[in-house]
Amino acid sequence: MPKLSVIIITLNEEANILRSLESAKPVADEIIVVDSLSADHTVDICRNFGCKVFLRKFDGYGPQKEYAVQQASNDWIMYLDADEVLTAELQQELCGLFTPPGSSSEALPGPAPSRNDPTQISGFYVQSSLCYMGKILRFGGVGKEFHLRLFNRTKGGFTNEPVHEGIEVEGVSGNLKGRVIHYSYRSISHHLEKINMYASLAADGYIARGRTFSRFWVVVKLPVNFISFYILKGGFLDGYPGFMWSFMATVYNILKMAKTIEKSRETQYEQTNS
Fold first, then answer.
1. Which of 89, 115, 175, 235 could form a disulfide with 242 if both were Cys (CB 3.0 to 4.6 A apart)?
2. What distance in Å separates the CA atoms of residue 5 and residue 34, rounded to the nearest whole number?
3. What does the alpha-carbon distance between residue 217 and residue 225 come to, in Å, rounded to a whole number?
């Protein structure tokens, strides 16, 4: 059976990283951490846990994650955010697919593992659920998201996007039943900080591709986005956390367009006056 490398990128994640590492330990032959020069105790926590830690200046999510892939000893890679946790069901499935650390016969208690064969499949989609304001959201577009998280690096890898990067592989992909739980936001203030950062990165990506937006479209998209998240995608069914998530998701979508307009004007001004 093949072995599995879990990769994680970090920046000031001392509040989250140990929980993530503990969930990965039962299934990972090795854990690779690429840290973007954290100012807290993230690196110390990872090293003490036995991870292989590499320090690298951040230059975009796609490049950073692909660098982590390159440091792995195994071809099969599982990507995990520093604020994510593997559920027991997903751990069991992974132990059925790969040689667990310590012993090929080691297994975790739980349901029977998936019958997917990693020798015939290039990657696996994993369901991700967001825990927001203490509640695992089931609606609003984040209750049942599937992302390609587990893949054979000989068949593909991460795209080079600075934000909203993805994994692309050649060949057949399967689905796993277990989930990853995402504890992405500690508070409203933390959520706003991340929205501002991601919106800036997204705007840079739009500018690099020559894309822009009209101010009218920004105004129109605000109510359309909120109705989509809160009504059409059922965010209201998640109560107050669902309302706040729908509101914040709308703010992010509007802000990345507004920042693109702003950056486009700044670029045009610099070119005109250079």
1. 235
2. 13
3. 11
Q: Is the pLDDT of residue 170 over 80?
A: yes
Question: Using CA atoms, how far apart are residues 270 and 273, in angstroms rounded to an integer?
Answer: 5
Architecture of domain 4-182: Alpha-Beta Complex (3.90)
Q: What is the CB neighbour count within 10 angstroms for residue 9? A: 22
> What whole-number distance in Å separates Cα of residue 66 and Cα of residue 36?
14
Tokens 């690099």 belong to: 208
pTM over 0.85: no
pLDDT for residue 57: 96
pLDDT (0 to 100) of residue 87: 97
